[in-house]
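Protein in question reproduced for absentees:

***
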Amino acid sequence: MKALRLHGTGDLRLHDEPAPEPRDGEVLVRVTAVGLCGSDRHWFLEGGIGDAVLDRPLVLGHEFVGTIESGSRAGERVALDPAVPCGRCSICLGGNPHLCPELRFAGHGTTDGALRTSLAWPERLAHALPDDLSDTEGSLLEPLGVALHAVDLAKARPGSTAGVFGCGPLGLLLVQTLRAAGVETIVASDPLPHRAEAAASLGATLENREVDVTFEAAGDDAALADAMAAVRPGGRVVLVGIPEGDRTTFTASTARRKGLTLLLCRRMKPADLPRAIRLAEAGEVELGGLVSGRFALSEWREAFDELVERRGLKVVVEPQRVGDGP
C-alpha cells in the first residue's frame, strides 16, 4: 500500500508499505477520502500540536471514510470515528470517553492516521455512510461532529443569537449547525474575505452585534478577543480552535466584568458522529460545497500548499485516485 508519512517539520514522504493486518475487533478499510484539518496543518508546520511532538514518522489524517474490505461488512461504505478510548477508566465510565487519558487518535502521537490507501480500524467505530452522501462529503462528517459537540457546550437554543469567529471549514460547519439548531441570528467574522463570504452565503450576517453565545474557531487570540467582545454579559464562549505554541491569552477584565463562562471543545463525543450522519442525510447542512480542492495521495504537495496557505476552504485527499504527482 501507499502511505504518506511526516518525518519532520514540512517533511512529508510517500512510502510503499505492507498492507495492514486487522486484529481482533478490527476491519480492513480501503480509504477513499480524507479531509485535511487545521490540526494536520499544525503537525506539518510545527512538527507537533500542543504538548504532542513528532517522535516517529507519522501518517496524518483523521477525517476519513472508506470501504470495508474484510469480515461480514465487506463492501460497506463507512465514516470512521478517529478516537479510540480505553472504555475502562473512570473518565470513560463517567460518560466522557473523548477525554480518556489513554485515548488513541488517528494521525496523532503514535497512532497512524488515514493518509494511506488502507488501514485497520476498530469495527465498532465504523458507521454506515448513507448512499446519498458521497465519499468526499463523508470526509466532513467528523468536523461536523465536533461542531455539534461545540454547540452542545454552548447550550445554544432556538431563537437565540450566536457569533462564530473564524470561518474555516469548522467555523462554516458551526454556522450551519447553529442554523439547524434554530439559532435566530448568527454573526460571523474572518479576516480572509473568501471565508467570510462563504459564511454569509450559508446564512450568517457579517454585521457586528451583541449575541448570546460565541465560538472562537480560528485558534488565535484576536478571534478570542472578538468573541469575548461580542458576547453578552453572562454569556458563554466556546474555544474550538487550536493555537500555535500551545498558549491562549485574553484580557481578563473583559471576561471578569462580563462574568463569562469559557468552555473548551475537545474533539467530539462518540454519539456525535452518528448525529452528524443523520443531520447530513436530512439535508440540514451543506458539505460538498465546502470542498475547494480534491487531490490524489501523490499530489500531497499541492494539497498541503492549499492547506497551509488557506487559499480555499476544505482540502480533501482521495487515496484511491490516480493523480499527476511523482
Observations:
- DSSP finds ten helices and 19 strands in the chain.
- The first strand starts at residue 2 and ends at 8.
